[in-house]
Design a protein that fits this description.
Layout (H helix, E strand, L loop, with lengths): L35 E10 L2 E8 L2 E8 L8 E13 L2 E16 L6 E21 L3 E21 L7 E23 L3 E10 L7 E12 L4 E16 L2 E17 L1
Antiparallel strand pairs: 1-4, 1-12, 2-3, 2-12, 4-5, 5-6, 6-7, 7-8, 8-9, 9-10, 10-11, 11-12
Amino acid sequence: MRLIPFHALLAASATAGEPLISEPPTTPSSGSESDWDFGMALYAPLMGLEGNIGLAGLGPASVDVPFDKILENFDAGLSGAFEARCGRWSITADAIWLKLSASGNPAFATQFDVKQEQLTASLSAGYEIYGSESASLDLVAGGVLNYIDVDLTLQTPMLPVKSRSASSSQEWVDPFVGLRFNQRFGDRWTLFANGTIGGFDVSSQEYWQVLAGVGFRITDSTSLALAYRAVSVDYHQGGFVYDTVTSGPNLGLIIRF
């Protein structure tokens, strides 16, 4: 059955792992190995979702939500990232907190009501395996923590059982490894691309992410970034099913200091 807004909810959540602090500092890594550069990003992950999600006793439901419907289900949320870089090494932290609610009509005379709260946070370390005046390639590795609390209610007024409800909270950590590439063009433009793969049956059966975009430097310390991101997570625990692909544009403001 199709549940229209269900877990557009989780669309932004799976994006943690490689945030939009992809534009390197103005000074290349050939500078002093003891100098630290710091970056902070605030971003809007307008992601759509497709896949299967369910709780024990309800679902799984087939979900197909375009990213342009996300804001209709948004209650509250914060998202941001922080990066510290010294020489060839970097450390990146990313976090997203969301509260969402939605209703859908997967079949005639039925209604799903969904409420969920979620925290997703990642921490990764990177090492520059190639660097020049205008380009860099980093090897990255880390982990992403997911916490999800979901309440579902299925209303079926035409059936003998008028209502069924289910609630579940899940927390899991997925490891990942990947590559991060940056290429400068002139003084203001940067092309970047990231790719990570993880899960490895530690928690999720599979986890992968790809991201590509462009950055535009407004000032010496401030940039805008526009990227397209796709994330796949396949997680099963008991009756809890989360097997989705999330994709869509991300807009970020990057500040370096």
